[in-house]
Amino acid sequence: MKKLKDTFKNKAKGFIIENYPAIILLMLLTFYFVYQHIAFQSWDFSAYVLNAKYLFYGGTYFETLRPPLAAVLLGLFLFLSKYGEFLYIICVSIFFLFTTKKLSEAIYENLKPKIIDKHQFMFLFYFFSIGGFTLVYGLKEGSELLSLALFELFLWAFIKNRNSGIYIGLAFLTRYNYMIFIPFLFINKNYKKVIKNIAIFLIIISPWLIFNYLKFGNFFASILDAHYNNIGMRGYIYTPFNILSLLEVMGLFLPFCIVGLIDAITSLVKRKKDEFNKNKISILFGIIAVITIFLYIKIPLKDLRYLFTLILPISYFSVIGIKLMFERLKLNKKSITLILLALMLLFMFTFNIIAIKTDAYTPKENKYYNAAKDIERLGIENCEILSPHWVLVTYYTENVYPLGGASLDYGIKANKITLIFKNEATLDDRFDLNKISKQNILYESADYIFVSKENFSIERCSKKYTYDSTYLKDYCEKLSSSFRSYNKTALNICKYINKR
Q1: Quick count: other Cβ atoms within 10 Å of Cβ 102?
Q2: Cβ count near 232 (within 10 Å)
Q3: Which SS3 state, helix, strand or coil, does residue 386 take?
Q4: Given pLDDT bands bounded at 50, 70 and 90, which one contains residue 339?
Q5: What share of the chain is helix, strand, coil (3-state, %, to 5)?
Q6: Which helix (H) or strand (E) holds 254?
Q7: Angle between helix 82-111 and 276-298 (nearest 10)
Q8: Which of these, 62, 191, 266, 432, is most buried using a 10 Å CB contact count?
Q9: What are the boundaries of each domain within the chain?
Q10: Which 3 state secondary structure label does DSSP give 486?
Q11: Whole-angstrom Cα distance, residue 175 to residue 169?
Q12: Distance of CA 161 to the CA centre of its chain
């Protein structure tokens, strides 16, 4: 046992010594993510915590549209209450360094650059992976960095020709958009490996599909709810594609990325046999970039974080670009070290800029927490409350539910309370704020208003309940409509396999 402990200690010590620049970046990155979570409450992260409480701790709110993995992992830590959320953030940040190391080593073995050793290559790849875009979107909503880390493991296995079904399955269970990369499982000359990868993928996702079937009567309930929420329900708010969004993702790494991309294209055109492996990796990351951008163009509501997977192609081509600069300038190791230190300073500059940007849109006082405290003070924590910002408040109270398309009159007549935040209109609001003053105001603060029935009574209010409703009811109809000329066949198959 002592020998095993000493071996582990020596390996850990060796890793830290060999990769100390990356360890420094890891500490800075993790510190920032923790700071961001303290300063800013996000909708999605709050929903994942609520789902974790529902699955493990008897919580009363559950969103079907959320993939399960982030909530399951959070559930492992939530026995520590709020501190469990920070432990989740720290673990995901460390895990991302590990997966980046694995992927960068696989790429390095194919490229075999002469001027950079594998530790410097890993540092560069990690550095370009954690720029300003990762800082803002990596863990603010809770699942982006985790899904990217799992996708890195999938690419590592894909490049090394190992079993990759488990990793794309886990990435899919973190964010459903990774479904688009499932066809990569078929890219293998060995048909036995194809069958094995697909089988492993199905085994990984099957517990979640079975849960959906037992709970909601359809294996695909969560997946179709997510699709409806992000695409089907958003057609009326289509936003056009703006190429500047790509520049925002690249940020300060744009020059390196362009140099690397030009070099990769030149190598492909010349078709040099000695650069076959490099071309193969470049094509892989080029395809990932094209798929990511295509999906972003097609989705109606274009949230910039939907481009998060683009981080990997940007990192790859940026490393190629800076490697080319090293080779052309014939720099020695001392010069490379100085450049790496300069890059670290650049990173810290970006870090500070993003920290200031984040602080600018962070409320100094959390109005949703204050609303939850007022719910407790008013003694209405067991009453049903409707709000357009329900997740952000029910994170604290678990008795606030979606207002949806319902009118204020609907809630009042049903003895429900409606909570409206001032100057915080959402895309789904269906009421006129000017008419609220004509309603009975149960309580009003500088940030929000509680609207209720006249002569409101806590004893007679509509009571809180366990919310785990689905968006859709006709899942098979919605799914089959995507198959066009084969919609009737798809409908019959869907109804058959979901028959209880």
Answers
A1: 17
A2: 16
A3: strand
A4: low
A5: 70, 5, 25
A6: helix 254-270
A7: 140
A8: 62
A9: 19-187+231-361, 367-451
A10: helix
A11: 10
A12: 27
1 burial (CB, 10 Å; 0-12 / 13-18 / 19+) is exposed
Residues 6+ positions from 5 with CB-CB distance below 8 Å: none
Residue keyed to tokens 């993003």? 354
Q: How many helices, marked H, and strands, marked E, lie in the chain? A: 21, 5
Order of strands across the sheet that contains 400-402? 400-402, 385-387, 417-421, 448-451, 441-444
- In sequence order, the 6+-apart residues with CB closer than 8 A to the CB of 430 are 404, 405, 406, 407
Backbone angles phi, psi at 172, to 5 degrees: -60, -40
- pLDDT over 90 at 436, yes or no: no
| DSSP per-residue letters across 143-198 | SHHHHHHHHHHHHHHHHTT---HHHHHHHHTT-GGGGGGGGGGG--S-HHHHHHHH
Q: Which residue has the tokens 């798929």?
A: 291
Read off the pTM. 0.90
Of 386, 400, 395, 393, the C-alpha closest to 367 is 393
Count of other CB atoms within 10 angstroms of residue 391: 22
Digit-coded pLDDT (tens) for 40-66 = 889 999 999 999 999 999 999 999 999
> Does 359 have pLDDT greater than 50?
no
Which tokens in the block code for residue 40?
A: 């800013």
- Take residue 373 and report the two structure tokens written for it: 């405290």
Residues linked to residue 444 through DSSP beta bridges, in sequence order: 449
Provide the Cα torsion 390, 392, 394, 400; round to 10°.
-20
Which residue type occupies 35? Y
The model's confidence at residue 385, banded by pLDDT at 50, 70 and 90, is very high
Task: Give strand ranges (E) for 317-430.
Answer: 385-387, 400-402, 417-421
Q: Could you tell me which residues come within 8 angstroms of residue 81 by beta carbon, excluding any fewer than 6 positions away?
A: none
3-state secondary structure of 89: helix
Contact status, residue 353 vs residue 384, Cβ threshold 8 Å: no
| Structure tokens given for 31 | 């510190």
Answer whether 379's CB lies under 8 Å from 357's CB: no
Give the H or E element holding residue 357.
helix 333-361
DSSP 260: H
Bridge pairing between strands 385-387 and 441-444: unpaired
| 160, two tokens | 């090394």
Task: Supply the DSSP symbol for 362.
Answer: S
CA distance 54 to 465: 13
Within 322-470, strands assigned E span 385-387, 400-402, 417-421, 441-444, 448-451
Instruction: Report d(CA 199, CA 183) in Å as an integer.
Output: 13
CA dist., res. 266 & res. 271, Å (int): 9
Strand partners, 467: 61
- Positive/negative CA dihedral, 43, 232, 248, 328: positive
Is the distance from CB of 387 to CB of 397 less than 8 angstroms?
Answer: no
Token pair listed for 280: 């193969």
The predicted structure's pLDDT at residue 361: 40
